[in-house]
Amino acid sequence: MIEVEAARMKIQHVLAQQKKVEIVSISEAAGRVCAENIYAKVAVPHFPRAGMDGYAVVANEIKGACLEQPVCLKVIDAIFAGDSECNPIKIPNTAVRIMTGAPIPEPYDAVIKQEWTDYGETQVKIYREIKAGRNYGEIGEDVYFDQKIIQKHQLINSRAVGILAAQGIKEIKVLEPMRIGILATGSELISLDEPLSSGKIYDSNLYTLASFIQSSGSKIIFQEHCSDDIEAISKFICEKANDVDLLITTGGVSVGEKDYVPQVIQQIKGKSLFHFVNMKPGTPMMASLYQNVVLLNLSGNPFAAVVNLHLFYWSALAHFMQCPELNLEKREVQLTEDLKLSNIRRFIRAYEENGFVSLNSKLHYSSVFHNTLETNCLIDQPAKAELKKGDHVTVYYWKF
Q1: Which of 247, 249, 296, 387 has the least CB density, counted as fewest CB within 10 Å?
Q2: CA-wise closest residue to 213 among 84, 312, 335
Q3: 360 pLDDT band (50/70/90 cuts)?
Q4: What is the mean pLDDT of residues 376-395?
Q5: CB-CB neighbours of 257 under 10 Å
Q6: Confidence class for position 232, pLDDT limits 50, 70, 90
Q7: What sequence ranges are listed for the domain MoaB/Mog (predicted)?
Q8: How confident is the model at residue 88 (pLDDT cuts 50, 70, 90)?
Q9: List of residues 6+ apart from 144 with CB closer than 8 A
Q10: Is residue 367 within 8 Å of 348, Cβ to Cβ?
């Protein structure tokens, strides 16, 4: 059996990286991967601005000011946020009433906050001294002109959108999303529109996997079901594979009489990258290559399918989009209970909080799925490792 990390590398070795780009408005850019370096067109701020409500002063002129001996200055103007930058004739020992965000005229070099004054309108008493530059936003204090503000292949988040908007940038180039197809195999599966009968189950995997993928920003091209039939599965893959960048199948990968996916890959002259991974659940997982399209062939059990997807899809997506931020978040945390030895590497549903991780349920069968709602991560338990309360373990967090 191949190790998880080695299996990921095999996938990345044959998975092409996205080169196609499109232009989107910044209102639609969150969650997309930037396709170019973006540089500041203007400094932020592009004028000296007040950091709070108060009075623009020359710091040297209020040295020694205190409650017992205030410095009295003549107020010669009032400037508000949105006013055009102005430069009143500077008269010694004067101040300008100013509001947060308003342009500070020369040669005033600090803003004394209004709570340290008597709020005077024509004359103001200053009760504290202040250093030059205090509450004074210099040009380019936030972003300087021509600064690289967004890196190529950076994941755009809400803060990045705000930074772009502050530049007056309305549109950016992003990589086109990964195109994904999902095929659930199994004669026992029925659609949500059909009545449930003995021996049949609703095809939940299609919806679970699709929701994970859509939340990642990828585009679902199709999500369909096929019965356990070699010819039908073969025909479907041959007809649909070239419509996507990654094709995901669930079910039919083990060694049962109707686990046909390995035979299908042989029949369509695909190449098996690996079959059977040193992990539980989802040990029988495969990955294949058909006409330069990667197929992730996942287990059909609900929890096993999600674990397979979680551990392999995100790394494949990060490689395809050339964006490491898309990879899984993992962390070292402390166990709150013992874990019995496992002969195979095991990924256990769990809940982490404040650096401590615990098992919220005693049901850990790959066919049991409902208790994943009570979890936020997977514990990575190495093979033949008997872990004790207080030990540190690696956890992989659910993305969504």
Answers
A1: 387
A2: 312
A3: confident
A4: 95
A5: 6
A6: very high
A7: 181-319
A8: low
A9: 40, 43
A10: no
Residue type for 55, please? Y
- HEC states along the chain? CECHHHHHHHHHHHCCCCCCEEEEEHHHCCCCEECCCEECCCCECCCCEECCCEEEECHHHHCCCCCCCCEEEEEEEEECCCCCCCCCCCCCCEEEEECCCCECCCCCCEEEEHHHECCCCCEEEECCCCCCCCCEECCCCCECCCCEEECCCCECCHHHHHHHHHCCCCEEEEECCCEEEEEEECCCEECCCCCCCCCCEECHHHHHHHHHHHHCCCEEEEEEEECCCHHHHHHHHHHHHHHCCEEEEECCCCCCCCCCHHHHHHHCCCEEEEECECCECCCCCEEEEECCEEEEEECCCHHHHHHHHHHHHHHHHHHHHCCHHHCCCEEEEEECCCECCCCCCEEEEEEEECCEEECCCCCCCCCCCHHHHHCCEEEEECCCCCECCCCEEEEEECCC
Q: Are 120 and 55 in contact (CB under 8 A)?
A: no
